[in-house]
Amino acid sequence: MRMDKLISMNLLQALLVIYLAAIATIKAQTPKCTTPSAGTGTCVPANECHPVIDFIQRNSPLSQADKEILRSYQCTVDNSLRVCCPDSKFVIPSSNNSDNELPPDVTVHKNFNLLPTECGIAGGRFVLGHRTSLYEFPWMALLNYRLATSGTDFRCTGTVINDWYILTAAHCLITSPTLQLISVRVGEHTINTDPDCEDGFGNRYCADPVQDFEVAEVIPHPEFDSKTFENDIGLIRLAHRINTTVYSVHPICLPTTETVRYRNFENTNVTVTGWGITDTGRKSDELLYATVPVVSEEQCRNAYQQRQVVVTRKQICTGDVNGDDFCHGDSGGPLEMVTYHNYRVKMIEYGVVSFGPGTCGQGFPGVYTRVDYYMDWILDNMKP
């Protein structure tokens, strides 16, 4: 073989190796994602995802339902909007499949105006660790129960969503002769101190007195299943109007508008708050928070399969290698996330604490009822 041909072949082989290495580097830098049907995918520009292009071409002109389905495939890389292009067969969720249904649009609901526009705004300062400061989570509520033996105890939590209503878990409302819900407290921070005060910037701040209310009506979801914890969501209407003009009490926002309703939680962290049992084995007197990662629907389903618990799209799962998550006493409390809502940065309640492992924050993901799927039910059951 002539020397010039040998050099040419070696050069081609070298160029091929460089090309393949470049392709592998590009693929390695392309973030993975989870599709709405719980499959794996790659977050790429829409014009590079052939299944999406085919779907658009087959269904043009697109209906509103088609647009909402495609929107659920959105993902973001470096603030650039892309689509989660599936690695295997492309599955478009069907509106006829109850497990794949999309959250309802309630912006035209007759009771939509019962939800305040001034919501989700915290007046506190974030502190290091898991402690919270005064006014940091002013929507938190404590549910007080009369015990069978004697006395009372706070056994569940909830959130203020307007001047009359508390959002909580349905299982917190299914009481018995030995455990009766008798009142709700808002504006609390540290249970055994009155008033709640803290020092900051050379000054001492004290919160307004707590507000305790009798219960006018409990509204658990009619399809709540105490065995599977499906539809674990409920409302409490209080006997008197909440004073939300004080710094220590303020309603949280719910996922109502389109920009916050179709949320992809993959690779995101969320916040949970409550007075539940800590690693000391006792309930906390002080309101605490934890930041936890969202676990994919597929991972959560696999984790609970052995326990014959079915996790659906109407739930969100979280977990942390350090064991940070909700605990006993946090039931009914919020899974929260800061996002841009109605032109302002606000805190949105995306989940209600439902159930988890026997040992707090370890072994199995924590499971939350996903609020956006129940917005029509929430508004249906609210009144002025």
Automatic annotation (TrEMBL):
Principal location: secreted
Biological processes per GO annotation: protein maturation; proteolysis
Domain Clip residue range list: 32-85
Recorded superkingdom: Eukaryota
UniProt GO molecular function: metal ion binding; serine-type endopeptidase activity
GO cellular component: extracellular region
Entry keywords, A to Z: Calcium, Disulfide bond, Glycoprotein, Hydrolase, Metal-binding, Protease, Secreted, Serine protease, Signal, Zymogen
Compartment(s) of residence: Secreted
Enzyme class label: hydrolase
Database matches in SUPFAM superfamilies: Trypsin-like serine proteases
EC numbers, comma separated: 3.4.21.-
Transmembrane helix keyword on record: no
Residues making up the signal peptide according to the UniProt record: 1-28
Domain Peptidase S1, first and last residues per copy: 121-383
Domain free text: The clip domain consists of 35-55 residues which are 'knitted' together usually by 3 conserved disulfide bonds forming a clip-like compact structure.
Family, as annotated: Belongs to the peptidase S1 family. CLIP subfamily.
Protein name: CLIP domain-containing serine protease
Species of the source: Ignelater luminosus (Cucubano)
